[in-house]
Amino acid sequence: MKLSLIGLPGSGKTTLGRQLAAHFGLPFLDLDAEIEAQAGRSIPQIFAGEGEAAFRQLEAAVLRTVLAQPQPLLLATGGGTPCFHGNMAVLNEGSFTLWLDVPVPVLAARLQAAEGARRPLLATAGNVESWLNETLAARQGFYKQARLRYPGTASSVSEVAAQLVATGFTA
């Protein structure tokens, strides 16, 4: 089975994803890293050279390729992945989806300083907390379609894993 993590930037999709993958004995894949590997350049370079629309098309194509593979996987998506090109439906059809719903003030604290500069949409955001609130308002309808919502910050990997299993996820 595949497990896909969705949520705003800074919600822990990659960090928690690696830990959950180890817990369940699944290979881990970060969708952004896969996009960069296939494109041969960084996401900021793609945004700068081709724009967000081209990035979103590439993201959708890579997502479909990854989810079409038969082997089990834990996938950390980009924050906007579920919101474009029917990707949320693709995620729900091809994997068990988990929304990491972390409070905006926690996310803002995590994303302050140098971390935000690596993320193209945050690099020009100005006030990070305002950007996160606006982005959550725009994306929440997609995120709510996830099979499971994990509110707050994870207190332990085993707690998140137990909720996943209780909801029907099997690795």
Secondary-structure element string: EHEHHEHEHHHHEH
Strand pairing plus helix content: what structural class? alpha/beta
CATH T-level topology: Rossmann fold
Radius of gyration: 15 Å
CATH class: Alpha Beta
Task: Tally the beta strands.
Answer: 5
3D architecture notes:
The protein has 9 helices and 5 strands. The protein is 57% helix and 13% strand. It is globular, with a radius of gyration of 15 Å. The protein has one domain (2-166): 3-Layer(aba) Sandwich (Rossmann fold). α2 packs across α3 (43-68). The N and C termini lie close together (6 Å). With 171 residues, it is α/β, with parallel strands linked by helices. It has helices at residues 13-24, 31-39, 43-68, 87-94, 104-111, 114-117, 120-123, 128-143, 157-166; strands at 2-6, 28-30, 73-76, 96-101, 148-151. The model has no long low-confidence stretch (mean pLDDT 90). The longest helix has 26 residues, at 43-68. It has a 5-stranded parallel β-sheet with strand order 2-3-1-4-5, with helices on both faces.
The gist of it:
The chain has 171 residues and is α/β, with parallel strands linked by helices. It has helices at 13-24, 31-39, 43-68, 87-94, 104-111, 114-117, 120-123, 128-143, 157-166; strands at residues 2-6, 28-30, 73-76, 96-101, 148-151. The protein has a single domain, classed as Rossmann fold (3-Layer(aba) Sandwich).
Label this structure with key terms.
alpha/beta, Rossmann fold, 171 residues, single chain
Per-chain topology:
Layout: E1 2-6, H1 13-24, E2 28-30, H2 31-39, H3 43-68, E3 73-76, H4 87-94, E4 96-101, H5 104-111, H6 114-117, H7 120-123, H8 128-143, E5 148-151, H9 157-166
